[in-house]
Amino acid sequence: MTQYFEVENRDGAARIGKLLLSPELRTPCALHTAALGNLENPGPVVDAGSLWTGSQEELQERIKKIREKTGKGTLVILPHQAYPPAIPAESLGKVKTFTSDGNNEIDGPAGSLLRIGGEVQKSDLYIIEGIGTLENNARRFLETLIDLKNRIPPDTALYAPNLALPENAAMLAYMGIDVTDDTRAEIAAYSDVYLTAAGSFYLDSLTEFPCRCRVCASTTPAELRTLPKAERAKLLAAHNRDALDAEFSLVREKIRAGNLREYVEGQCRVRPWLTALLRLGDFEYSYLEERVPAFRQNQLLADTSESLSRIEVVRFAQRIRERYTPPDLDILLLLPCAARKPYSTSQSHQKFILTLGKYRKFVHEVIITSPLGIVPRELELTYPAAHYDTAVTGHWDEEEKAWVSGCLEDYLSKYNYKAIVAHVEGAYREICERVARKLGIEIVYTAGESLTSYESLSSLKNTVESICTSEGFNRKSQNAEEEKKNFVKAVASYQFGEGAKYLFSGEVGTPVVKGRFPKYQLFVGKKQLATLIPQYGMLALSPEGGELVLKSEKYVVKIDDFVPRGSILAPGVLEADHGIRPNDEVIVLGKRALCVGRAAMSGKEMEKSGRGVAVDVRHVKKL
Ligand SMILES: [Zn+2]
Where is coiled-coil annotated (predicted)? Predict the structure, then answer.
């Protein structure tokens, strides 16, 4: 816990924070490396120096002087002995660590060095020892980062020195680094290297400057080349520094907009090690999954092959596998996705629905799509099913087909239908055929080349009709009421897992869904339990609904003996379910109140943070 760093905005592992120093620093950012050594006139962050050369006493005196000058406005990186990360922690027995003499000259913001496997000292800023040497080594980089992030408190800042360039700034922020510096940008300038987010250029190779900063606007590469080395380097350094700052501004905007992932998916192509980091980050899964919000307000663009391994996509598929139960119907209809979301509002789906007519109540509809895999009709509103867009070419690559087939195969091997009809063509049909062959099941195909042609739609109608009127068909169906209830039930299960069953147990009365699609409301008698929020397809609970879901003991935040007003701050949280993700609907329980609201951070972070809003409370019920 720290008083000097506050996280304001999160998007996955990336976050926007504030280092409460003088002047205040907005993170993620790049420090001016040269200023770190300025102890005479200290800026917001200074490095107190090395234990290789100074004695404890000298260094203590130094810190005291800094504090006298700027008080708590300066974060002091405590004296340290740095080693290259290649030397394993266990052989560092003799590393000198700085200890204060107890007179609290450290009193105020402080930073300390941290290495993989090393001991975590109390600090406001952790500096990753030797991380700069791990450039181009995505695996070691990620391993180090995850080890450190899992051990330091979430409300402290993490500093990766000697690494940032405009080209990797977005990836560093995406992975959860808050602070960097301009060491590399400065070194590049002295080597005649011109930096951009799209990579670096030798000054010699440039005909024009792809930038309009003050330096670039007032000179040309040819002119710059004629200047003496020192002067040239100064100007290049000014541009490089500017390019780095501009990139961090852009990154912060991307975090605010909730689309840093999309940006990074493109940006990482500049360097293979950055692309490797993107992929390895997804393979690691839990590090990012814990931090990725349950929903976003903005669109999810699935335009690259890595979209298939993106946390939101994998999580959706996983929840269908683990939490979803289909309604009790005997006919499955597989449909292709549509560009317009929710699918049911698209022209093609409108036609399918119209065609099914009175037989629709016998049919369970599941939509096949890339990259989400399969989307049961009841979850078509739920993030990210109604929020993704993808480049449609009609061509599916092998990875896409394999992923979507896998999702369909999982589903069909778990649930038995009396009849499976697929109104699909092209790659969708290929996927269905592949799964049918593998599982040895029969699928009836009803579409020709055009899904909405008169022939195709007639074939769909006739096929479903003949199944429904065949002898021995048990006529399992859902009426309009049941359909609405199944819809809300599917969303509740997706969101709360087993906790959903308490909303529908009938223990407190028969649950009824009121309202027109998509504004469904779940009632028991006159008591409202939950409302479906169409924008992201999830339920907002009422306190009565919260009381029921509470029985599963999941999505619960326990607070102390107080009645909350407005938001609940992290220090007020005693215990929180580690399954809680940012934006999850949660139930807050204390001795004096039961509340419902939305998580602003993950459950783990609520427990470990000393600052920041943990839950935005919507309703408070005094107990
Ligand atoms: Zn420039």
Answer: none
Report every protein residue that has its C-beta within 5 angstroms of ion ligand 1: 211, 213, 216, 239
Which secondary structure element, helix H or strand E, spans residue 368, and what is its range?
A: strand 363-369
Domain boundaries along the sequence of the chain: 1-181, 189-258, 300-468, 506-622
How close is the Cα of 254 to the center of ligand 1, in Å? Answer: 21
Measured distance CA(130)–CA(109) in Å, rounded: 22
Alpha helices in 96-228 (DSSP H): 138-151, 169-174, 183-190, 214-218, 221-225
Exposed (0-12), middle (13-18) or buried (19+): which is 299, by Cβ within 10 Å? middle
> Looking at residue 71, what is its pLDDT?
87
pLDDT band at 106 (very low <50, low <70, confident <90, very high): low
Domain 506-622: assigned CATH number: 2.30.130.10
8-state DSSP, 309: G
DSSP at 513: E
Give the Å distance between the CA of 240 and the centre of ligand 1. Answer: 7
CATH number of 1-181: 3.20.20.105
Query: Is the per-residue pLDDT at 442 higher than 60?
Result: yes
Give the CA distances from residue 105 to residues 75, 114, 359, in Å, rounded to whole numbers and listed in that order.
Answer: 12, 21, 79
Under the banding of pLDDT at 50, 70 and 90, the label for residue 80 is confident
| Residues 397-418, mean pLDDT to the nearest whole number | 96
Q: Domain 300-468: which topology?
A: Rossmann fold (3.40.50)
User: What percent of the chain has pLDDT above 90?
Assistant: 85
Distance 269 CA to ligand 1 centre (A): 22
Q: From ligand 1's centre to the CA of 211, what distance in Å?
A: 4
Strand partners, 375: 367
| Residue located via tokens 């939490």 | 323
Q: Spell out a b/e string for 324-363, using b for 16 or more CB atoms within 10 Å of the CB, else e.
A: bebbebbbbbbbbbbeebbbbeeebbeebeebbeebbbbb
Centre of ligand 1 from the C-alpha of residue 273, in Å: 25
Q: How far is the CA of 219 from the centre of ligand 1 (A)?
A: 10
Strand partners, 512: 523
Share of the chain above pLDDT 70, in %: 96
pLDDT of residue 88: 67
CA distances from 253 to 16, 247, 443, 601 (A): 9, 10, 48, 19
Q: How far is CA 415 from CA 110, 329, 377, 378, 412, in A?
A: 57, 11, 16, 16, 5
Structure token pair of residue 31: 């420090």
